[in-house]
Structure formats: structure tokens, C-alpha cells
Design goal:
The structure is a single chain. By secondary structure, this protein is mainly alpha-helical. It has a two-stranded antiparallel ribbon with strand order 1-2. The chain binds zinc ion (ZN). The site of zinc ion has 8 residues, from helix 1.
């Protein structure tokens, strides 16, 4: 299991996610982001807007994911 925070995954708080694979943790952070979005949380709305900007460029999204995956892989397995 590895741990990453909402902040580390392009979000806006210190909530921690724990998962075995990057795909899982990305999914968890996405779900959390949607929840916060529905609650109308200002900080997460801003973070999501930035992600949406990024999504306009497939190259940028790919690079972002690759970087985050590397970060995840570099973490100590608990
Ligand atoms: Zn968050």
C-alpha cells in the first residue's frame, strides 16, 4: 500500500488515499474530487478547473499522469 494526498494528486486538501496501484489511487482521488465538487468546495472547484484546463491537451494530461505515476512508484511500499 502506498499513500498519497489529495494535494499531491492535483486536489486541494490533505486527505490521504491508500492503494496498491496508481490506477486505484487516481480513481479514489477522482471520486473524492467529485464529492467535494458536489459540495461546492471552493478550493476543490478551483483545482478541478485547473485539471479541466490540462485536459484540453492530451499531451499535457499524459505527462501529468506519468509524473504522478513516477511519484507514486517512488513512494515506500508500506
Ligand atoms: Zn481533497
Amino acid at each position: 500500500m502506498r499513500t498519497m494526498t489529495c494535494n499531491q494528486l492535483g486536489g486541494a486538501c490533505d486527505k490521504e488515499f491508500r492503494a496498491d496501484t496508481f490506477e486505484e489511487i487516481a480513481e479514489m482521488s477522482k471520486k473524492h474530487g467529485m464529492e467535494m465538487f458536489q459540495k461546492g468546495d471552493e478550493a476543490h472547484l478551483k483545482a478541478m478547473k485547473e485539471m479541466q484546463e490540462l485536459m484540453k491537451s492530451p499531451e499535457a494530461v499524459k505527462e501529468w499522469f506519468e509524473n504522478k505515476r513516477k511519484e507514486f512508484d517512488a513512494l515506500t511500499d508500506e
